[in-house]
Amino acid sequence: MVERSALAAVVPTEAHPTGSTEARGSFIAAPRALLSDSAWPWLAPVVSLLVVFALFPFFYNVWLSFQEFVPRERALEFVGTDNWVKLFGDARMWGALGITLLYTGVCLIVQVALGLGIALLLDSDDPGFGILRGVLTLTLVIPPAITGMMFLLLEDAQYGVITWMLQGLGFFETGSILGNANTALAGVMLADIWQWTPFMVLIFLAGLRAMPTEPFESAVIDGASSWQIFRRLTLPMLGRVMAIAVLLRGIDLFRTFDYVFVMTSGGPGTATYTLSLYAWQQTFSFINWGYGAAISLFSLFVILIVANVFVAATRLRW
Amino acid sequence: MSVAAYQSTGSRVLRALFGWLVVGVFFFPIYYWFSIAFRPESQVFTKPPLVFGWDFTAKSFEEVFGISFGGEQAATSLAGGGNFFMTPYLIDTVIVAVGSTALVIVIATLASYALSRMRIRGQHHFVFWILSTRMMPPVAIAIPMFFIYKEIGLMDTHLGIILVHALMNLPLAVLLLKSFFDDIPQEIDEAALIDGASRWTIFRRIVLPMAIGGIAATAVLCFIFSWTEFLFVLTLTQTGLKTIPVVSSTFVTSTGTAWGKMAALGVGAMVPAFIFILLVQKNLVRGLTMGGLKQ
């Protein structure tokens, strides 16, 4: 079977006008470049897309960060390193970086912990668990912009269900979650955690379900406790999946935009100003295109450093 | 793999109860949003909030999607005046999400197979470079794209959004697919190579069918990310197309938010995405249990 189709791939199909349809292969005739042992033809589409759509924006931003839009002239003007000097002395930028790091850290820890707990809970073949896993993925289908609106309603100062519940439980008497500088960031995080914990559950479940059964069976036979099995078997075997999930989620959390944009627009004051939002505001509200580009690049460098440290620390190799 | 099989009936019942409770908590905001979509506008803001016992009406739903469930004629004008049917935008969203998912899955599958089987020099750094393309704040990609798209005429087109969404999902797809391919034993490839099969044949006839579950799982995630993406569509379209996350902002007006309509749109937008998930669900389960192949 394999040999026959291999032959069909090497010999052009036109040479067999009477050849069976089977010999033609089922949906695509073999591209010649993909027959050999070289990896580059396989990588070519990805590389070309990334060069055009990722390298260009990067270099464009580098160039733009040395320019600034001058409203009087309605044109860009070269300003040297002004934007970068301004960036490092900008207290609001450092504030935004702090808030972004706090937001990323807290959300990541909560999402990993909750995600792992729920994944372990739902990793069962008993009836009903398939439905539970399906229902949980529903949160991912809702656009973050709409999720933001949803939580805006749930956290409404007067009519919100979450506010009402928290007041009923006596956490606070009056005032809103999002209107208070101390709680606004937590209010936004709640939406993020609600939406993305199921993403972690999904990835962790994939890892849990892919594990071989034998080590667990022998551990149970040998009388290991549930905690020992979790600590010595499950966690180490899940390590790589967890590292990749944390990396992907961490990157997205660091660039978070939709929730803060919809729910608080950075307020009250600067309590929920993230770097992405600050870059957006500098670009579109203040028309400081060059400065916006500098903030974006700075944000990129911070993630690059953190991600590199993380990859080295978790010994992730591709 | 689950240790549950070795547990007593009592703890299994407890586990099920706890599972329903946790999922119930996560489902609650969706339930509430759903109830907002199907209640009269006057019951959106009540004190205390009406969690149960609201009056059912499909009015918001009819207005948003321009369909009538019979009975009274649905009013179709919004505060701004004119018709505001969301169905065309729903179709735009489906085209963009399906198109970008198909594109990203095809090219990422090829690339991840090569990265999994035919290692290249500096592979670790190459994969990290692919990942790093997701690290740029979206604003910083949207602005240069805005200028190129204006130049080459991709502005305001489905193809333009499909390309930018494919780019956005590429790192995720390559990383996940590579790990799924890595799970398939190399020995299978080697045996086929010795039998004289080409790389393409092995990929097409052996590895692809075995990894189909992982590919389905990746496709679902890419679809969801494209389905819900907001900022690129906001900056790279004008009138040619709009997707659901972007049009939802039209319900936020200076005179207030049309909560019922926005909820109806949110609920309606969940349906096609959920259908897509159900369609690949069978493969998804296989993908999640595929590790059984591992020794």
Overview of this structure, please?
The complex is a heterodimer of chains A (318) and B (295). Chain A has 318 residues and is mostly helical. Chain A has one domain: MetI-like fold (Orthogonal Bundle). Helices cover 66% and strands 3% of the residues of chain A. Chain A contains 13 helices and 2 strands. Chain A has helices spanning 2-10, 40-64, 82-88, 91-122, 129-141, 144-154, 161-168, 184-209, 214-221, 226-254, 258-263, 275-285, 289-313; strands spanning 67-70, 75-78. A two-stranded antiparallel ribbon of chain A has the order 1-2. In chain A, helix 5 packs across helix 8, helix 6 packs across helix 8 and helix 8 crosses helix 10 (226-254). Mean pLDDT of chain A is 82; it is low at 1-26. Chain B is mostly helical and 295 residues long. Chain B has one domain: MetI-like fold (Orthogonal Bundle). Chain B has helices spanning 9-37, 59-65, 87-117, 123-132, 138-152, 158-182, 186-194, 199-210, 212-228, 231-236, 244-247, 259-288; strands at residues 252-253, 256-257. Chain B has a two-stranded antiparallel ribbon with strand order 1-2. In chain B, a hairpin with a 2-residue loop joins strand 1 (252-253) and strand 2. In chain B, helix 3 (87-117) crosses helix 9 and helix 6 (158-182) runs antiparallel to helix 9. Chain B starts with 8 loop residues before the first helix and ends in a 7-residue tail after the last helix. Mean pLDDT of chain B is 80; it is low at 71-83 and 286-295. Classes of the chains: A mainly alpha (318), B mainly alpha (295). The interface between A and B is large, with 113 and 121 residues.
